[in-house]
Design goal:
This protein has 238 residues and is α+β, with helices and mostly antiparallel strands. Among the domains are: 71 residues, Ubiquitin-like (UB roll) (Roll), CATH 3.10.20; 94 residues, Methane Monooxygenase Hydroxylase, Chain G, domain 1. It contains 6 helices and 5 strands; from the N terminus they run H-E-E-H-E-E-E-H-H-H-H. Strands 2-1-5-3-4 form a 5-stranded mixed beta sheet, with helices on one face. A hairpin with a 2-residue loop joins strand 3 and strand 4. Helix 3 runs antiparallel to helix 4 and helix 4 runs antiparallel to helix 5. The longest helix has 43 residues.
Length: 238
C-alpha cells in the first residue's frame, strides 16, 4: 500500500472513473492528465479488449485516443461508455463459409428478380380474370402472350443453381408460375365458351412434376381423349 501511495503521489492527482461496458460497470483509477488512449490501455486489464477494439464515449461523443481526459471535461466520479468494435475476421478459417453464403445469396437474388417479374405477370392475370368472369370478351393472343412470358420465367428458374433456402424459394416460385399458367388455361377455355360449365374447362395440371431436378415440365401435356369417346370407339369395333 505504501508503495502504491508514493506512486500515486508522484503521478499527481487521479480520477476514479466508472466505465459502462455491456451490463457491467468497471471502476478504474487513472491519472488526471491521462489521455483516452491511455485509459484504453488500463481497461485492457479489466475487459480483455485490445485498445483498437475499444470505443470510448463521454457525454454522447466518441473520444479520440489523443484527447486528454481533463480537456474533455472528465472529472472524478465521471461515467464513460465503452463499446466494442467487431473482431477482425479470420480469413483463413472463414473462406469456405463466406463462399457458400455468397453463392446462396446470389441464388436468392436471382430468384427475387424472377419473383418481381412474376408478380407483374400475376397482376395481369388477375386483370384478365376480372374481365373474363365479368363477361367481357378477351382476345386469345392475350392468353398466349402471358403464357409465353410465364414459361420464360420458368426457364430462368430452371437455370438457377440453388441449395438450401435458395432452393426452397425457387421451388415456391415454380409452383406460383405453374398455378398462374393453369389459371390462364381455365380462363382461356371459359373465354372461348362463356356459356359452358366452367368447372369442366380443360386444365393442364397433370405433368408438371416430372423432371429429375424437381423443377417441373416447361411444356403442357398433349390433350387427352375423354373416357366417353374411348368407350364409343370400342363399341364401334365390337
Amino acid at each position: 500500500m505504501l508503495v502504491q501511495r508514493r506512486d500515486g503521489e508522484a503521478a499527481g492527482p487521479v480520477f476514479r472513473i466508472r466505465v459502462s461496458h455491456g451490463a457491467n460497470f468497471r471502476e478504474v483509477v487513472v491519472p488526471a492528465q491521462a489521455t483516452f488512449g491511455e485509459l484504453k490501455s488500463i481497461l485492457v486489464q479489466t475487459t480483455g479488449l485490445e485498445p483498437e477494439r475499444q470505443r470510448l464515449f463521454f457525454r454522447g461523443k466518441e473520444k479520440s485516443d489523443r484527447e486528454f481526459l481533463h480537456a474533455a471535461g472528465v472529472k472524478d466520479g465521471a461515467k464513460l461508455l465503452l463499446l466494442e468494435k467487431p473482431a477482425p475476421a479470420n480469413l483463413v478459417q472463414k473462406v469456405e463459409p463466406v463462399i457458400m453464403d455468397e453463392s446462396m445469396m446470389k441464388a436468392c437474388e436471382a430468384v427475387a428478380r424472377v419473383r418481381a417479374e412474376v408478380d407483374k405477370l400475376s397482376a395481369k392475370v388477375c386483370d384478365l380474370e376480372k374481365n373474363v368472369l365479368g363477361g367481357r370478351k378477351v382476345e386469345d393472343k392475350e392468353f398466349v402472350v402471358l403464357t409465353e412470358l410465364l414459361m420464360m420465367q420458368l426457364l430462368k428458374l430452371d437455370g438457377i443453381k440453388a441449395e438450401g433456402e435458395a432452393r426452397a424459394q425457387r421451388k415456391a416460385e415454380v409452383h406460383q408460375v405453374q398455378s398462374l399458367v393453369e389459371t390462364l388455361d381455365k380462363l382461356k377455355a371459359r373465354n372461348a365458351n362463356p356459356f359452358s360449365d366452367h368447372n369442366k374447362a380443360v386444365s393442364v395440371t397433370t405433368q408438371w412434376e416430372t423432371f429429375e431436378n424437381g423443377m417441373g415440365s416447361l411444356s403442357a401435356p398433349p390433350p387427352r381423349v375423354s373416357s366417353t369417346q374411348v368407350d364409343t370407339d370400342w363399341e364401334q369395333f365390337d
